[in-house]
Specification:
Belongs to the thiolase-like superfamily. Thiolase family. By secondary structure, the protein is of the alpha/beta class. Helix 1 crosses helix 2 and helix 10 runs parallel beside helix 11. About 55% of the residues are buried. The model has no long low-confidence stretch (mean pLDDT about 95).
Length: about 375
Amino acid sequence: MAEAYIVGAVRSPVGKKKGGLSTVHPTDLAAHTLKALVERTGVDPAAVEDVIMGCVMQFGPQSMDIARNAWLSAGLPESVPGVTIDRQCGSSQQSIHFAAQGVLSGTQDLVVAAGVESMSVVPMGSSVTAALEKGMPFPFGDMWVERYGKQEISQFRGAELMCEKWGFERDELERYAYESHQRAAKAVANGYFKEQIAPLNGVEDDEGPRADTTLEKMAGLKTLRDGGRITAATSSQISDGSGAILIASERAMRAHGLTPRARIVQLALVGDDPVYMLTAPIPATRRALERSGLSIGDIDVIEINEAFAPVPLAWLKEIGADPARTNPNGGAIALGHPLGGTGAILMTKLLHELERTGGRYGLQTMCEGGGQANVTIIERL
């Protein structure tokens, strides 16, 4: 049976909103990691058969197929095509799935999976806001309303609904967020991310972690909704960043002298309640583990996107994973969540942490708009 391997993985630093990467055009941000991936792997870029790039706000500077534009901006061969996809927050994790599936099918041998989002340049919700300003309909039409009624559909409401369902109080969310910052600050201080980051615009490290944050500071913040539990401190940070992964077949590795770093073990995708929106990592993880024949105890490193603190907390409670193996170097609450770039960034972190610690299996998952989730299991080689 065909196998798909990860040959290289690189990312930009994750910049804060209006931080050190905010003046970089999104296309240049993506081009930077694509160029770094080619340089670090030594692959012949003309041999790449496609560039699949996740980007959520495909509007303005991120429109017109940013995957193609970023590849060309990096000075890479015009013969290589590119396509931009949107599976909301999981866009570039889906890029990895599509790239791996192309290789597993035997129809492709070398594919780049990537992702980018500059939330400083193209704010979240820009495309919807622009449409509404022009009098165009909201994304949910009459048939949606017929099925789900006229109710608020948002990640913020979904996070609060999760708190209610699983009984999470504000102080528990803040303790989790505090630990995320502590882990991330330690990882930055110890240089755990250095090898995986391609510095850009004078930024060498992730800008989000706050080593000096305290539970007292978090307790003083206003909730995002009246009577709610979620605050900015227990939510992912608005960020800028990109990542790129090279996925290859055995034939491509032999032909181009490439060295595999990990094997794709399992790809899973599940839909769940779109009103709760953020719960799908739970059933998606169960499906991936069942199909792979692995148990959660077999997984050495886990990356679950911290869109909001109740997402990993509910996942931990339902799946029974070891908290010490879950986001061991902090997550999006501390490190940021550049939407379409996060999936590729998380995979880069996952691979490098497996290599740093000598772990064998890694699992990545994240919640996505519409109540969806991807799960990717890899084996370090």
